[in-house]
Design goal:
Helix content: 40-55%
CATH superfamily of the largest domain: Butyryl-CoA Dehydrogenase, subunit A, domain 3
Shape: globular
Number of strands: 9
CATH class of the largest domain: Mainly Alpha
Pfam family, one: Acyl-CoA_dh_N
Protein name: Acyl-CoA dehydrogenase family protein
Keywords: FAD, Flavoprotein, Oxidoreductase
Order of helices and strands: HHHHHHEHEEEEEEHEEHHHH
Distance between the termini: 61 Å
Radius of gyration: 21 Å
Oligomer: single chain
InterPro entries: ACX4-like, Acyl-CoA_DH_CS, Acyl-CoA_Oxase/DH_mid-dom, Acyl-CoA_Oxase/DH_mid-dom_sf, AcylCo_DH-like_C, AcylCo_DH/oxidase_C, AcylCoA_DH/ox_N, AcylCoA_DH/ox_N_sf
Family: Belongs to the acyl-CoA dehydrogenase family.
Strand content: 5-15%
CATH topology of the largest domain: Butyryl-CoA Dehydrogenase, subunit A, domain 3
Length: 397
Protein backbone atom coordinates (compact mmCIF):
# COMPACT_ATOMS: atom_id res chain seq x y z
CA UNK A 1 0.00 0.00 0.00
CA UNK A 2 1.31 3.43 -0.91
CA UNK A 3 0.73 6.57 1.09
CA UNK A 4 0.57 10.13 -0.14
CA UNK A 5 2.71 12.62 1.71
CA UNK A 6 0.92 15.85 2.64
CA UNK A 7 1.77 18.89 0.53
CA UNK A 8 3.20 20.95 3.35
CA UNK A 9 3.21 24.72 3.12
CA UNK A 10 6.33 26.56 2.04
CA UNK A 11 6.63 27.86 5.60
CA UNK A 12 9.03 25.73 7.61
CA UNK A 13 7.16 26.95 10.69
CA UNK A 14 3.92 25.21 9.66
CA UNK A 15 5.20 21.79 10.74
CA UNK A 16 1.84 19.99 10.47
CA UNK A 17 0.79 21.65 7.21
CA UNK A 18 -2.31 23.43 8.50
CA UNK A 19 -2.27 25.74 5.50
CA UNK A 20 -3.41 22.79 3.40
CA UNK A 21 -6.85 23.16 5.04
CA UNK A 22 -7.43 26.17 2.78
CA UNK A 23 -9.17 25.74 -0.54
CA UNK A 24 -7.25 26.29 -3.74
CA UNK A 25 -8.79 29.74 -4.18
CA UNK A 26 -8.00 30.70 -0.59
CA UNK A 27 -4.43 29.47 -0.88
CA UNK A 28 -4.02 31.58 -4.02
CA UNK A 29 -5.07 34.67 -2.06
CA UNK A 30 -2.58 33.86 0.70
CA UNK A 31 0.22 33.34 -1.82
CA UNK A 32 -0.51 36.70 -3.49
CA UNK A 33 -0.36 38.41 -0.10
CA UNK A 34 2.85 36.54 0.75
CA UNK A 35 4.51 37.70 -2.46
CA UNK A 36 3.43 41.30 -1.86
CA UNK A 37 4.86 41.26 1.66
CA UNK A 38 8.10 39.63 0.54
CA UNK A 39 8.71 42.17 -2.19
CA UNK A 40 7.13 45.37 -0.88
CA UNK A 41 7.25 45.22 2.94
CA UNK A 42 10.15 43.01 4.05
CA UNK A 43 12.89 45.08 2.33
CA UNK A 44 11.82 48.40 3.89
CA UNK A 45 10.17 47.72 7.23
CA UNK A 46 13.23 47.82 9.49
CA UNK A 47 14.00 51.36 8.36
CA UNK A 48 10.46 52.56 9.06
CA UNK A 49 10.35 50.69 12.38
CA UNK A 50 13.61 52.36 13.44
CA UNK A 51 12.27 55.82 12.53
CA UNK A 52 8.83 55.13 14.06
CA UNK A 53 7.16 56.00 10.76
CA UNK A 54 4.56 54.15 8.72
CA UNK A 55 5.26 53.17 5.08
CA UNK A 56 2.15 54.72 3.56
CA UNK A 57 3.17 53.64 0.07
CA UNK A 58 2.19 50.03 0.87
CA UNK A 59 -1.49 51.01 1.14
CA UNK A 60 -1.69 51.06 -2.66
CA UNK A 61 -0.47 47.45 -2.67
CA UNK A 62 -3.11 46.45 -0.15
CA UNK A 63 -5.75 48.07 -2.37
CA UNK A 64 -4.67 45.94 -5.31
CA UNK A 65 -4.85 42.77 -3.20
CA UNK A 66 -8.56 43.45 -2.50
CA UNK A 67 -8.52 41.77 0.90
CA UNK A 68 -9.89 44.48 3.20
CA UNK A 69 -13.51 43.44 2.67
CA UNK A 70 -13.07 39.67 2.82
CA UNK A 71 -14.94 39.31 6.11
CA UNK A 72 -18.04 41.15 4.91
CA UNK A 73 -20.70 40.28 2.34
CA UNK A 74 -20.52 41.99 -1.02
CA UNK A 75 -17.31 43.94 -0.40
CA UNK A 76 -14.72 41.76 -2.10
CA UNK A 77 -14.48 39.42 -5.06
CA UNK A 78 -14.20 36.53 -2.60
CA UNK A 79 -16.09 36.16 0.71
CA UNK A 80 -13.46 34.85 3.10
CA UNK A 81 -13.87 32.23 5.79
CA UNK A 82 -12.45 32.91 9.25
CA UNK A 83 -9.80 30.35 8.41
CA UNK A 84 -8.69 32.42 5.41
CA UNK A 85 -8.73 35.75 7.23
CA UNK A 86 -6.82 34.12 10.08
CA UNK A 87 -4.10 32.90 7.76
CA UNK A 88 -3.89 36.37 6.25
CA UNK A 89 -3.34 37.87 9.72
CA UNK A 90 -0.66 35.24 10.33
CA UNK A 91 0.99 36.04 7.01
CA UNK A 92 1.00 39.80 7.48
CA UNK A 93 2.25 39.58 11.07
CA UNK A 94 4.93 37.09 10.00
CA UNK A 95 6.21 39.90 7.79
CA UNK A 96 5.71 42.66 10.37
CA UNK A 97 3.47 43.03 13.43
CA UNK A 98 3.11 46.80 12.93
CA UNK A 99 1.74 46.36 9.43
CA UNK A 100 -0.65 43.69 10.68
CA UNK A 101 -1.83 46.01 13.44
CA UNK A 102 -2.58 48.70 10.86
CA UNK A 103 -4.48 46.16 8.77
CA UNK A 104 -6.31 44.62 11.74
CA UNK A 105 -7.41 47.95 13.20
CA UNK A 106 -8.81 49.02 9.84
CA UNK A 107 -10.45 45.78 8.67
CA UNK A 108 -11.36 44.27 12.04
CA UNK A 109 -12.02 46.90 14.67
CA UNK A 110 -13.15 49.84 12.52
CA UNK A 111 -14.95 48.00 9.71
CA UNK A 112 -16.22 45.42 12.19
CA UNK A 113 -17.81 48.14 14.32
CA UNK A 114 -19.59 49.65 11.33
CA UNK A 115 -20.71 46.24 10.08
CA UNK A 116 -21.89 45.01 13.48
CA UNK A 117 -23.34 48.23 14.89
CA UNK A 118 -24.15 50.43 11.91
CA UNK A 119 -27.52 50.79 10.21
CA UNK A 120 -27.97 49.51 6.66
CA UNK A 121 -27.49 53.07 5.37
CA UNK A 122 -24.30 53.50 7.41
CA UNK A 123 -22.90 50.21 6.14
CA UNK A 124 -23.58 51.29 2.55
CA UNK A 125 -22.04 54.70 3.20
CA UNK A 126 -18.79 53.66 4.88
CA UNK A 127 -17.94 50.02 4.22
CA UNK A 128 -17.39 50.07 0.42
CA UNK A 129 -14.75 52.87 0.50
CA UNK A 130 -13.17 51.23 3.55
CA UNK A 131 -13.03 47.89 1.72
CA UNK A 132 -11.30 49.65 -1.19
CA UNK A 133 -9.02 51.28 1.40
CA UNK A 134 -9.93 54.67 -0.04
CA UNK A 135 -10.87 55.60 3.53
CA UNK A 136 -8.84 54.24 6.45
CA UNK A 137 -10.42 53.52 9.82
CA UNK A 138 -9.41 53.57 13.48
CA UNK A 139 -11.05 52.39 16.71
CA UNK A 140 -11.00 54.53 19.86
CA UNK A 141 -11.89 52.71 23.07
CA UNK A 142 -8.91 52.72 25.46
CA UNK A 143 -8.47 55.79 27.67
CA UNK A 144 -5.63 57.26 29.76
CA UNK A 145 -7.27 55.98 32.97
CA UNK A 146 -9.06 52.95 31.58
CA UNK A 147 -7.64 49.82 29.99
CA UNK A 148 -8.91 46.54 31.35
CA UNK A 149 -11.69 48.29 33.30
CA UNK A 150 -12.83 50.49 30.44
CA UNK A 151 -16.28 48.84 30.35
CA UNK A 152 -17.21 50.27 33.73
CA UNK A 153 -14.91 53.26 33.80
CA UNK A 154 -15.36 54.86 30.38
CA UNK A 155 -14.86 58.59 30.92
CA UNK A 156 -15.36 60.01 27.42
CA UNK A 157 -18.87 61.44 27.29
CA UNK A 158 -21.47 62.05 24.61
CA UNK A 159 -24.14 64.68 25.19
CA UNK A 160 -27.14 65.04 22.85
CA UNK A 161 -27.57 68.55 21.47
CA UNK A 162 -30.41 68.75 18.95
CA UNK A 163 -29.52 66.67 15.91
CA UNK A 164 -25.89 66.36 17.05
CA UNK A 165 -23.79 64.90 19.83
CA UNK A 166 -21.01 66.65 21.72
CA UNK A 167 -18.03 64.43 22.59
CA UNK A 168 -15.66 65.35 25.41
CA UNK A 169 -12.80 63.32 26.87
CA UNK A 170 -9.59 61.54 25.94
CA UNK A 171 -8.50 58.31 24.28
CA UNK A 172 -5.07 56.67 24.33
CA UNK A 173 -3.12 54.15 22.22
CA UNK A 174 -5.40 54.57 19.21
CA UNK A 175 -3.73 52.93 16.21
CA UNK A 176 -4.03 54.67 12.81
CA UNK A 177 -5.62 57.69 14.47
CA UNK A 178 -3.02 60.23 13.32
CA UNK A 179 -4.07 59.74 9.69
CA UNK A 180 -7.37 57.81 9.69
CA UNK A 181 -10.29 59.18 7.71
CA UNK A 182 -12.85 57.63 10.09
CA UNK A 183 -12.43 56.95 13.81
CA UNK A 184 -15.01 54.82 15.63
CA UNK A 185 -15.27 56.42 19.08
CA UNK A 186 -16.95 54.83 22.08
CA UNK A 187 -18.42 57.26 24.60
CA UNK A 188 -20.86 57.19 27.51
CA UNK A 189 -24.20 58.92 26.98
CA UNK A 190 -24.60 61.49 29.78
CA UNK A 191 -28.35 60.98 29.81
CA UNK A 192 -28.79 57.20 30.11
CA UNK A 193 -25.23 56.15 31.07
CA UNK A 194 -24.95 53.63 28.23
CA UNK A 195 -21.95 53.33 25.91
CA UNK A 196 -22.61 54.37 22.33
CA UNK A 197 -20.51 54.39 19.17
CA UNK A 198 -19.80 57.37 16.91
CA UNK A 199 -17.92 57.74 13.65
CA UNK A 200 -15.75 60.86 13.83
CA UNK A 201 -14.35 62.01 10.51
CA UNK A 202 -10.89 63.48 10.08
CA UNK A 203 -10.57 67.23 10.61
CA UNK A 204 -13.79 67.44 12.63
CA UNK A 205 -13.51 70.49 14.92
CA UNK A 206 -12.74 69.47 18.49
CA UNK A 207 -10.97 66.25 17.42
CA UNK A 208 -7.25 66.47 18.30
CA UNK A 209 -5.03 63.40 17.74
CA UNK A 210 -1.36 63.54 18.77
CA UNK A 211 1.18 60.87 17.88
CA UNK A 212 2.60 58.91 20.82
CA UNK A 213 6.39 59.03 20.82
CA UNK A 214 9.01 56.89 22.54
CA UNK A 215 7.50 53.43 21.96
CA UNK A 216 9.77 50.36 22.05
CA UNK A 217 7.24 48.08 20.34
CA UNK A 218 5.11 48.35 17.19
CA UNK A 219 7.08 51.45 16.34
CA UNK A 220 5.70 51.74 12.81
CA UNK A 221 2.12 51.89 14.13
CA UNK A 222 0.94 55.47 14.39
CA UNK A 223 -0.69 55.35 17.83
CA UNK A 224 -2.30 58.54 19.06
CA UNK A 225 -3.59 60.21 22.14
CA UNK A 226 -6.87 61.89 21.21
CA UNK A 227 -8.51 64.83 22.95
CA UNK A 228 -12.20 65.49 22.27
CA UNK A 229 -13.02 69.06 23.16
CA UNK A 230 -16.60 69.90 22.31
CA UNK A 231 -16.35 67.65 19.25
CA UNK A 232 -19.67 67.87 17.44
CA UNK A 233 -20.86 64.73 15.63
CA UNK A 234 -24.17 64.49 13.77
CA UNK A 235 -26.81 61.94 14.74
CA UNK A 236 -26.22 60.43 11.28
CA UNK A 237 -22.74 59.46 12.48
CA UNK A 238 -23.95 57.68 15.61
CA UNK A 239 -23.80 53.93 15.07
CA UNK A 240 -27.47 53.08 15.22
CA UNK A 241 -26.99 49.54 16.50
CA UNK A 242 -24.62 50.39 19.37
CA UNK A 243 -26.68 50.67 22.56
CA UNK A 244 -24.35 49.39 25.30
CA UNK A 245 -20.87 48.05 25.95
CA UNK A 246 -22.17 44.61 25.05
CA UNK A 247 -22.17 45.73 21.41
CA UNK A 248 -18.56 46.86 21.76
CA UNK A 249 -17.70 43.46 23.22
CA UNK A 250 -19.23 41.72 20.20
CA UNK A 251 -16.66 43.46 18.00
CA UNK A 252 -13.79 42.65 20.37
CA UNK A 253 -14.75 38.99 20.49
CA UNK A 254 -14.05 38.66 16.78
CA UNK A 255 -10.89 40.75 16.65
CA UNK A 256 -9.34 39.13 19.74
CA UNK A 257 -9.08 35.93 17.73
CA UNK A 258 -7.28 37.90 15.03
CA UNK A 259 -4.64 38.97 17.54
CA UNK A 260 -4.03 35.31 18.36
CA UNK A 261 -3.55 34.53 14.66
CA UNK A 262 -1.12 37.43 14.30
CA UNK A 263 0.80 36.23 17.34
CA UNK A 264 1.30 32.87 15.64
CA UNK A 265 2.78 34.74 12.67
CA UNK A 266 5.08 36.72 14.95
CA UNK A 267 6.49 33.63 16.68
CA UNK A 268 6.65 31.67 13.42
CA UNK A 269 8.84 34.38 11.90
CA UNK A 270 11.11 34.38 14.94
CA UNK A 271 11.44 30.59 14.83
CA UNK A 272 12.23 30.57 11.11
CA UNK A 273 14.87 33.25 11.56
CA UNK A 274 16.45 31.34 14.44
CA UNK A 275 16.47 28.08 12.48
CA UNK A 276 18.17 29.65 9.45
CA UNK A 277 20.72 31.40 11.66
CA UNK A 278 21.52 28.24 13.62
CA UNK A 279 22.31 26.37 10.41
CA UNK A 280 24.77 28.99 9.16
CA UNK A 281 26.32 30.33 12.36
CA UNK A 282 29.44 28.39 13.35
CA UNK A 283 31.04 28.16 16.78
CA UNK A 284 33.69 25.68 17.96
CA UNK A 285 34.13 24.52 14.37
CA UNK A 286 30.54 23.50 13.65
CA UNK A 287 27.10 25.04 13.00
CA UNK A 288 25.39 25.83 16.28
CA UNK A 289 22.38 23.85 14.99
CA UNK A 290 24.40 20.71 15.85
CA UNK A 291 24.44 21.58 19.57
CA UNK A 292 21.89 19.82 21.75
CA UNK A 293 20.82 22.92 23.66
CA UNK A 294 20.20 24.86 20.45
CA UNK A 295 18.12 21.99 19.09
CA UNK A 296 16.16 21.97 22.35
CA UNK A 297 15.40 25.67 21.84
CA UNK A 298 14.35 25.10 18.23
CA UNK A 299 12.13 22.14 19.13
CA UNK A 300 10.47 24.13 21.92
CA UNK A 301 9.83 27.05 19.59
CA UNK A 302 8.39 24.83 16.89
CA UNK A 303 6.17 23.09 19.43
CA UNK A 304 4.85 26.45 20.57
CA UNK A 305 4.15 27.53 16.99
CA UNK A 306 2.47 24.25 16.07
CA UNK A 307 0.24 23.98 19.13
CA UNK A 308 -0.72 27.65 18.83
CA UNK A 309 -1.57 27.27 15.16
CA UNK A 310 -3.72 24.25 16.00
CA UNK A 311 -5.58 26.35 18.58
CA UNK A 312 -6.34 29.26 16.25
CA UNK A 313 -7.38 26.89 13.47
CA UNK A 314 -9.85 25.35 15.92
CA UNK A 315 -11.05 28.83 16.88
CA UNK A 316 -11.60 29.75 13.23
CA UNK A 317 -13.61 26.58 12.71
CA UNK A 318 -15.84 27.52 15.65
CA UNK A 319 -16.29 31.00 14.16
CA UNK A 320 -17.13 29.65 10.72
CA UNK A 321 -19.77 27.41 12.33
CA UNK A 322 -21.17 30.41 14.24
CA UNK A 323 -20.66 28.88 17.70
CA UNK A 324 -17.68 30.91 18.93
CA UNK A 325 -18.08 32.33 22.44
CA UNK A 326 -16.11 34.94 24.40
CA UNK A 327 -14.17 32.31 26.28
CA UNK A 328 -13.00 30.64 23.06
CA UNK A 329 -11.42 33.85 21.77
CA UNK A 330 -10.11 34.75 25.22
CA UNK A 331 -8.36 31.40 25.67
CA UNK A 332 -6.71 31.64 22.25
CA UNK A 333 -5.48 35.17 22.89
CA UNK A 334 -4.14 34.33 26.35
CA UNK A 335 -2.45 31.03 25.55
CA UNK A 336 -1.03 31.93 22.15
CA UNK A 337 0.48 35.25 23.22
CA UNK A 338 2.08 33.58 26.24
CA UNK A 339 3.68 30.96 23.99
CA UNK A 340 4.72 33.70 21.59
CA UNK A 341 6.53 35.53 24.38
CA UNK A 342 8.59 32.45 25.18
CA UNK A 343 9.26 31.72 21.52
CA UNK A 344 10.59 35.13 20.54
CA UNK A 345 12.82 35.14 23.64
CA UNK A 346 14.31 31.77 22.69
CA UNK A 347 14.79 32.94 19.12
CA UNK A 348 16.68 36.01 20.27
CA UNK A 349 18.76 33.75 22.52
CA UNK A 350 19.77 31.55 19.57
CA UNK A 351 21.16 34.68 17.91
CA UNK A 352 23.22 35.55 20.98
CA UNK A 353 24.48 39.13 20.90
CA UNK A 354 23.55 39.40 17.23
CA UNK A 355 19.92 39.09 18.31
CA UNK A 356 19.79 42.71 19.45
CA UNK A 357 20.73 44.05 16.01
CA UNK A 358 17.74 45.27 14.04
CA UNK A 359 19.35 44.11 10.80
CA UNK A 360 18.85 40.51 11.93
CA UNK A 361 15.06 41.12 12.29
CA UNK A 362 14.51 38.94 15.35
CA UNK A 363 14.85 41.95 17.67
CA UNK A 364 11.82 43.55 15.98
CA UNK A 365 9.64 40.50 16.68
CA UNK A 366 11.04 40.25 20.22
CA UNK A 367 10.02 43.87 20.95
CA UNK A 368 6.70 43.81 19.12
CA UNK A 369 5.59 40.65 20.91
CA UNK A 370 5.29 42.66 24.12
CA UNK A 371 2.56 44.82 22.59
CA UNK A 372 0.68 41.85 21.14
CA UNK A 373 0.85 40.20 24.56
CA UNK A 374 -0.93 43.19 26.15
CA UNK A 375 -3.41 44.70 23.71
CA UNK A 376 -7.01 43.57 23.11
CA UNK A 377 -7.17 42.13 26.60
CA UNK A 378 -4.27 41.30 28.88
CA UNK A 379 -3.43 37.71 29.72
CA UNK A 380 -4.97 38.13 33.19
CA UNK A 381 -8.28 39.48 31.90
CA UNK A 382 -8.58 36.77 29.27
CA UNK A 383 -7.78 34.10 31.85
CA UNK A 384 -10.61 35.42 34.02
CA UNK A 385 -13.02 35.30 31.06
CA UNK A 386 -12.16 31.62 30.64
CA UNK A 387 -12.32 31.05 34.39
CA UNK A 388 -15.80 32.57 34.58
CA UNK A 389 -16.96 30.32 31.74
CA UNK A 390 -15.74 27.09 33.30
CA UNK A 391 -16.75 27.85 36.90
CA UNK A 392 -19.86 29.94 36.36
CA UNK A 393 -18.43 32.50 38.79
CA UNK A 394 -16.90 35.89 37.93
CA UNK A 395 -13.69 36.90 39.70
CA UNK A 396 -12.96 40.26 38.09
CA UNK A 397 -13.30 42.37 41.24
Amino acid sequence: MTTTQPAFTTHTGDFYGFEDLLSGTERGIVLRVRDFLRTQVDPIINDYWARAEFPFQIIDGFRELDIAGLMYDGLSAHRGTRLLTGFLALEICRSDPSVNTFYGVHTGLAMGSVNRCGSEEQRRRWLPPMARMDRIGAFALTEPHGGSDVAGGLETTARRDGDSWILDGEKKWIGNATFADLVVVWARDTEDGHVKGFVVEKDTPGFHPTKIEGKVALRAVQNANIVFDGCRVSEENRLQGAHSFRDTSDVLRLTRGGVAWGSVGCMMAAYELALAYAKEREQFGRPIAKFQLVQDHLATMLGNVTSSLAMVVGLAQLQDRGVNRDEHSAMAKSVVTTRMRETVALAREVFGGNGILLENNVARYFADAEALYSYEGTREINQLIVGRAVTGMGAFV
